[in-house]
Amino acid sequence: MQPFTYERASSVKEAAVAVAAKPEATFISGGTNLLDLMKLEIERPTNLVDVSRLPLDQIRETPEGGLRIGAQVRNSDLAADPRVRSRYPMLSQALLAGASGQIRNKASTAGNLLQRTRCPYFYNRNMPCNKREPGSGCAALDGFNRMHAVLGAGEACIAVHPSDMAVAMSALEALVETVLPDGTTRTIPIGDLHRLPGSTPHVETALGHGEMIAAVTLPPPPPGRQLYRKVRDRASYAFALVSIAAVVEKSGDRIRSARVAIGGVAPKPWRTTEAEYVLAGAAAADPAFSEAAESALAGAVGRGGNDFKIPLAKRTIRQTLAAAVEGA
């Protein structure tokens, strides 16, 4: 591990200023992803700014009827919060489907959003990876790409975003609150937080250097039944092959509205408005579920090893929607 300096911030602005002052500085909170990357010298910060003790560990009601989740709220605390379990059950299900209990006890809300891909070529410094070393190439294109993206990827990178929580938050239309080094704040819709790789796959989010996530706000819960389904290689903790976050509102035997987000298939949580358009006003039955699934995966491109994800995602969307309408 490369030598680094360490300091503990006493305020959000102080943390943002400290990171902004040094090009190779970064924030650290739970460290469940960052420390692994530092040990492998994939991440090589010269200065760590510890934000884990800032007073950002509360979940508060908003005047609009939503919840404001501090950036330092632990994943296990968020999943267990009675308000989250009753009003945003999909979020609790996604959190409990992610990682191990030990990691959830340490991982923070902001850190979960900003965790980096688990692409094996990203972790292997002997292999080319445009995300780790821009311009070096992408070994996954013709390599072992069973876990990789079928939507939103490109020739420069086909890695997927690993978070379960972010997929549920995408369907819930969460807002990410940040503080910039000059003390100003901004609010980023979660759909705009993560970037597609394009020609700059190493630039993964819309955050500037030194910009710190302070909280995530959930709007009032959407009407309808929420459900999160995750398909993985084993029942214990593992990253998603495919995951689906669905919210379905039903009126009689028809669907009034729906929200669908997919995980494990793209470089960012993938909100599929095409499927939602198909479902709005349709009869709550398999033909609409199938058409929605086809629409959601219409632009999917496999690379050989990950071809199976396309039919798997379609089946998972159909089954998740069918289960969601039962209790809607």
UniProtKB/TrEMBL annotation:
**PROSITE patterns according to UniProt:** FAD_PCMH (PS51387)
Q: Which SMART domains match?
A: CO_deh_flav_C
Q: Which GO terms describe its molecular function?
A: FAD binding; xanthine dehydrogenase activity
Give its E.C. classification number: 1.17.1.4
Please report the stretch or stretches of sequence annotated as the FAD-binding PCMH-type domain: 1-223
- Can the keyword Oxidoreductase be found in this entry's annotation? yes
Tell me where on the tree of life, at the top rank, the source sits.
Answer: Bacteria
Q: Which UniProt keywords apply?
A: FAD, Flavoprotein, Oxidoreductase, Plasmid
Q: Which Pfam families match?
A: CO_deh_flav_C (PF03450), FAD_binding_5 (PF00941)
Q: What is the designated name of this protein?
A: Xanthine dehydrogenase FAD-binding subunit YagS 2
According to its UniProt entry, this protein's organism is Rhizobium etli 8C-3
